[in-house]
Amino acid sequence: MAETPCPVCGSEYPYPSGIFMICPECAHEWNPEEAVEEEADNFSLIVKDSNGNVLKDGDSVIVVKDLPVKGFSKSIKVGTKVNNIRLTSGDHNIDFKIAEFGAMSLKSEFVKKA
Predict the structure, then answer these.
(1) DSSP-assigned states of every residue in 41-110
(2) Global pTM?
(3) Phi/psi at 63 (nearest 5 deg)?
(4) Number of C-beta neighbours around residue 80 at 10 A
(5) DSSP designation for 111
């Protein structure tokens, strides 16, 4: 596992390029020194699921409601398990990837901790 996993997708395979790290899976580039400062800011962020359980980066969650997705004919079904979430600030406070839909954001009120 890499010293600094990708802050966007959690990939274990980022590689250094000068002062930056580059993720081969999502092409995100970041400065690891700045990422440490951002992580310190995220510790004050408290996100709770639909049952009131506190979520943290890397948790697995289960969707508790059918959710339509703009631009797709099908929706995310109840019971869909999502691994390796990332917490963000804002209205949609969970970022994750689903194989059929790609990367997306979701409100924590529509998931429960797995």
Answers:
(1) HHTT--EE-TTSPEE-TT--EEE-S-EE-TT-SSEEPTT-EE-S-EE-SSSS-EEEEETTTEEEEE-GGG
(2) 0.60
(3) -70, 135
(4) 17
(5) E
Reported as a single tens digit per residue, the pLDDT across 17-66 is 888 889 888 888 888 877 555 555 555 578 889 999 989 999 999 999 99
* Cα 112 from Cα 51, distance rounded (Å): 6
pLDDT tens-place string over residues 85-103: 999 888 889 999 988 888 9
CA distance 15 to 59: 24
What's the CA gap between 8 and 42, in Å, rounded?
14
CB crowding 22-60: b at 16 or more within 10 Å, else e: bbeeeebebeeeeeeeeeeeeeeeebebbeeeebebebe
Q: Is 62 left (phi over 0), alpha (psi -120 to 50) or beta?
A: beta
